[in-house]
Amino acid sequence: MTSETNPDTPAATVFNVPNQLTAARFVLAILVFVLIVCQQYLAGMIVFIVAASTDWIDGYWARRFNQVTKLGRMFDPFVDKIIICGTFILLGAAPDSGIAAWMAVVVVGRELLVTALRSFIEESGGDFSANMAGKLKMVFQCAAVVVSLWVLETGPAQAAAWLQWTLVGLVWLAVLSTIQSGLGYVWASAKFFRA
Least CB-packed of 6, 39, 95, 130 within 10 Å? Predict the structure, then answer.
């Protein structure tokens, strides 16, 4: 039997390994938020790295073992947005994080826009899967968060110059790639609507 007709196949199992990893990432995201609020930046950085790593693992596992589910396609990007948007918002409120409040607004605004476009297009029968620009954006955002937490843990006044310049570069790469990938999705959506 194919995976479409047999409910016992891995692809049809809702709470499979990729979805369990996504659920774990959601819990870890909440823990990251708590640690940032409590100014436990080193612990927050470690938990964030673990959480971000599960995003790559669950995607690889789902494709490698044919465990892609409708729940996973919805839940995985939702959790990604929760951890990135939430972390940027909290760091935007933290003095000397290197992330300004308006940058968090750009990140959140882009995610809301892309979510709305994806929902509309996929309901209309189109494909709105993540592209390479979106994946690179996620890499830059995660790197910016990690270095920001590292600087906060070290202490902005004590952080080495190279670390501070690395933070500035990564934050701007994150913001610019967020804008660029968002515009790419808008352009793809415009072509879909015209078609």
Answer: 95
| Right CATH for 10-194 from 1.10.10.60, 2.60.120.10, 3.40.190.10, 1.20.120.1760 | 1.20.120.1760
What tens digit of pLDDT does each residue of 8-24 get?
444 447 778 888 899 99
Q: Domain residues of the chain, as ranges?
A: 10-194
Q: What are the structure tokens assigned to 91, written together?
A: 């760091």
Q: What is the pTM of this model?
A: 0.87
Q: What is the pLDDT of residues 138-149, one digit of tens each?
A: 999 999 999 999
Q: Do residues 64 and 121 touch, judged by C-beta distance below 8 A? A: no
Amino acid occupying residue 142: C
Contacts of 154 (CB under 8 A, 6+ apart): 160, 163
* DSSP letter (8 states) at residue 11: G
Cβ distance 54 to 25 under 8 Å?
yes
